[in-house]
Each structure stands twice: as structure tokens, then as C-alpha cells.
């Protein structure tokens, strides 16, 4: 059974957690394929809210095996704390399998993330300061420590000694910080963390392929989203990995022919956290309305998100980059009670109209959105269970999105709860 990929089409925070949870009921494996604990998925089940950072959304179903793939960077202490939190709320995490090839986030990664942002000043990228970027940088530089190194104390200490020579020199001589104690780090990771992490470690590539070969359903879950992709996003205001659907192949260890379905998550409006261009950003009363109604604050950081109208130019680009087979729209209910709803259908800059995202960042930074204005709706959508329950204006909004993207809509979210959605599938 070929795999399903779930990917965000904006700058993250589209509500991927709810959708992956919804799909997970039919899945044998749910695999997280990139990112770290800088991304949070919020799932509401029977009135209980679960904020997940590293553990895949499928953990809430007892029949599903949650998998953290090789493309993820992992702070093992954060992972253990998250498992403890879930366990205290009655969620069994013993099924979790962690790739031995996933890279570790180490204490010096946090230090370097913090110092880099501080020294960038007004040009800062707006990272979460969780050490994600420096961990991926070490991976590319081939000096990273991997999860499997926790099971070999000799190798762990050798690698740590080599990398700390460079990191401590950088921290002390460039950033005027105290050097880190390698022995203290080794004792903590090998003595306290490794015994608790070891039972989770497995060959996730083999696990995924065995499930596919057995005809079982596998879902690949990305963190962040298309326009935070290090190659295809609004660089340099991006993450350090590839959230796009193609990244699922690398981050989970499968080939393109193993994927048959790519679901793009579209929030009914759009938000962004941190710095970077945002053509449809709004301010004032409309911004406050979207933030308050949509509870637009970071799951992990608590930072207020920057809100804006839905951008169909970005969505068309996301369709191209991910080969989307269907769309799922989230938070349609947040737009209720607005008199009018705007949708960006194109950009304009220097007399040129763009229907796809311009490749040059200097152009993107100065584009103006071209809006189509639609009538709003006043009805509360929370109780909608079928397409016929939606007001005509809301249905028209969904139809406009599908037509502009050239991709059918399968589900529309009408509230935060697990069952608060409307199926558009034929």
C-alpha cells in the first residue's frame, strides 16, 4: 500500500496535527520525516488538548505505531519529557520507534542558535532558538552525533571530543561564552539519557518498508511547511530542512514510487511566525480578530503569529512543489462573522502581474497583493457535519480555493475538535 504524505502549504501552523490525527485512524505507521521540537502539533480529543513536539500524531491511536525518522533532529531530553507527559495522561508511548540515524541536538547547538540570532540583530531570522539549525549544519558538515551513538559510549565520547574543540573555541573566542564541559555532557547523555532512549531505537527504514510491502497504510508527517523549506521557502527566513513532500522520501528512507497521495493543508487564512516577507499580512482590528478567534499563538513558543488573508499565489506554488493530490482546509470557522473576506489572487510589482511566486527575493519583498473580495457569512460553523450545513458564502469560498489550486478539497475543518470537520470527498 503506497504511502500518504501530509504537508503544510503555507508557513506552518495550518493545523496539520488535526488532519494527521484524523487520517491516523486508518494508518499502521505515522512517520515524522523532518524538523525538530521547534514545531508543535495541537490535537483536541474529547475536549482534551494535546500539544505534540516530536512524537508523531498517530500516538493517540493504540493501533498505530509512531515513528521518528532519520530526517528528524532530536533533543532526547525533550523527547523523554514529552513521552512522560503523554504517559501521565494515559497515552501509551511504548510503541514509539526512533531512527538510529536521526541526529542529536546537543547543548552547544542551543548556545550557538542563541548567539547567532543575537549577533544578527535587526537581520535576525526569528528562529525558535531550539538548536535546530546548528544541528542540521553539523549534520551537513559531517560532525554530528546520531541517536545510535548513544548506544556506543566510546564512539560518543570520541565524536563529542572532536566537535567540542571547534564549538568551544567558537563560543569562547567569538561569542565570549564559557566553554562547555564535555565530560559533564557525556555523563548526562550516556548515564541518564541513553538507558531510557535505547529501547526506542530501531531500524525505521526497514520498519516502513515492511509495512508497505505488507499492504499496510503508512502516513508521512512533515513539520513546518512548504514556504519554510530551506530550498523552496522564503530564504533565509526558513527552517533548516525540507518539509516539502519530496523531503519525505529522504527523511523516511523511501522512494517516490512509494507515495501515492499527497495531502496539502491550507488554513482558511494565513499566518507566519518570525521574520520574512508576507504579502497579504494585515494589521489592526482584522489582525486582532483573526489572532483572537484562531488562537494564533505558537504551540511551543507562545509567540503571537502574524496574520493575513489567504494567498492563492502561494497555494498554486505549493501545489507545484509538492504534487498535491488533494487539499484539506482548516479553521474555516474562524472567518465567520466577517462582513467580507479577501483572497489574494495575484501579485503586482513594477507593472508586472505574478500568478506564481516570483523567483527573485527582492521582487517578492516589494510585491502588492491583488485581492478578490468575497461576501462573508455570519453563521457559526461549529456544528456543521455536512456540506449542506455550510452557508452558501462559505461553500463558495471553498470552491474558489479548489478552482484556483486545480486540486480537489477533501475535508474542511470547522472547529478544533477531532470530529469537527466536513467531508467534501465524493
Segments where pLDDT lies below 50 for 5+ residues? none
Question: Helical proportion?
Answer: 25-40%
General shape: globular
Q: Report how far the terminal alpha carbons are from each other.
A: 22 Å
How would you describe this protein?
The chain has helices spanning 16-24, 76-88, 107-120, 132-141, 153-173, 182-197, 204-213, 245-252, 284-294, 312-322, 361-364, 392-405, and strands spanning 3-8, 29-32, 41-45, 48-52, 65-68, 73-74, 97-99, 103-104, 201-202, 218-221, 259-267, 270-272, 306-308, 310-311, 326-330, 340-349, 352-354, 368-375, 409-413, 421-423. It has 426 residues and is of the alpha/beta class. It is built from twelve helices and 20 strands. The strands form five sheets. It has a ten-stranded mixed β-sheet with strand order 9-7-5-2-10-1-11-15-19-20, with helices on both faces. Strands 14, 16, 17 and 18 form a four-stranded mixed β-sheet that branches. It has a two-stranded antiparallel sheet with strand order 3-4. The model has no long low-confidence stretch (mean pLDDT 92). Helices cover 33% and strands 21% of the residues. α3 (107-120) packs across α4 and α5 crosses α6.
Characteristic terms for this protein:
single chain; 426 residues; alpha/beta; ten-stranded mixed sheet; four-stranded mixed sheet; 12 helices; 20 strands; globular
Amino acid at each position: 500500500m503506497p504511502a500518504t504524505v501530509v504537508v503544510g502549504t503555507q508557513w506552518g501552523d495550518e493545523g496539520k496535527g488535526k488532519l494527521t490525527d484524523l487520517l491516523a485512524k486508518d494508518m499502521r505507521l505515522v512517520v515524522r520525516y523532518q524538523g525538530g521540537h521547534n514545531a508543535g502539533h495541537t490535537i483536541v480529543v474529547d475536549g482534551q488538548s494535546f500539544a505534540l513536539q516530536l512524537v508523531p500524531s498517530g500516538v493517540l491511536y493504540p493501533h498505530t505505531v509512531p515513528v521518528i525518522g532519520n530526517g528528524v533532529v532530536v533533543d532526547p531530553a525533550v523527547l523523554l519529557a514529552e513521552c512522560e507527559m503523554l504517559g501521565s495522561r494515559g497515552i501509551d508511548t511504548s510503541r514509539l520507534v526512533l531512527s538510529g540515524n536521526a541526529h542529536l541536538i546537543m547543548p552547544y547547538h542551543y548556545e550557538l542558535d542563541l548567539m547567532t540570532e543575537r549577533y544578527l540583530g535587526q537581520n535576525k531570522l526569528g528562529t525558535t532558538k531550539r538548536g535546530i539549525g546548528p544541528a542540521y549544519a553539523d549534520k551537513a558538515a559531517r560532525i554530528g552525533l546520531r541517536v545510535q551513538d548513544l548506544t556506543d559510549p566510546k564512539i560518543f565520547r570520541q565524536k563529542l571530543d572532536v566537535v567540542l574543540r571547534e564549538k568551544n573555541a567558537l563560543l569562547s573566542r567569538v561569542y565570549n561564552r564559557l566553554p562547555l564541559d564535555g565530560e559533564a555532557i557525556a555523563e548526562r547523555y550516556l548515564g541518564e539519557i541513553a538507558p531510557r532512549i535505547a529501547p526506542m531505537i530501531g531500524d525505521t527504514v526497514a520498519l516502513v518498508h515492511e509495512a508497505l510491502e505488507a499492504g499496510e497504510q503508512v502516513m508521512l508527517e512533515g513539520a513546518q511547511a512548504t514556504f519554510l523549506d530551506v530550498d523552496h521557502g522564503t530564504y533565509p527566513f526558513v527552517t533548516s530542512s525540507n518539509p516539502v513532500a519530496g523531503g519525505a522520501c529522504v527523511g523516511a528512507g523511501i522512494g517516490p514510487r512509494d507515495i501515492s497521495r499527497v495531502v496539502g493543508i491550507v488554513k482558511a487564512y494565513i499566518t507566519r511566525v518570525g521574520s520574512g516577507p508576507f504579502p497579504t499580512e494585515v494589521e489592526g482590528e482584522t489582525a486582532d480578530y483573526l489572532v483572537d478567534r484562531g488562537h494564533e499563538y505558537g504551540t511551543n513558543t507562545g509567540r503571537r503569529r502574524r496574520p493575513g488573508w489567504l494567498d492563492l499565489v502561494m497555494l498554486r506554488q505549493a501545489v507545484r512543489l509538492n504534487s498535491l493530490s488533494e487539499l484539506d482546509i482548516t479553521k474555516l470557522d474562524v472567518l465567520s462573522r466577517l462582513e467580507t473576506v479577501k483572497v489574494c489572487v495575484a501579485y503586482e510589482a513594477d507593472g508586472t502581474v505574478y500568478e506564481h511566486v516570483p523567483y527573485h527575493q527582492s521582487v517578492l519583498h516589494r510585491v502588492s497583493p491583488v485581492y478578490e473580495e468575497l461576501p462573508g457569512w455570519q453563521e457559526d460553523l461549529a456544528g456543521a457535519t455536512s456540506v449542506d450545513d455550510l452557508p452558501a458564502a462559505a461553500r463558495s469560498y471553498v470552491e474558489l480555493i479548489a478552482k484556483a489550486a486545480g486540486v480537489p478539497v477533501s475535508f474542511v475543518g470547522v472547529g478544533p475538535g477531532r470530529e469537527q470537520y466536513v467531508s467534501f470527498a465524493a
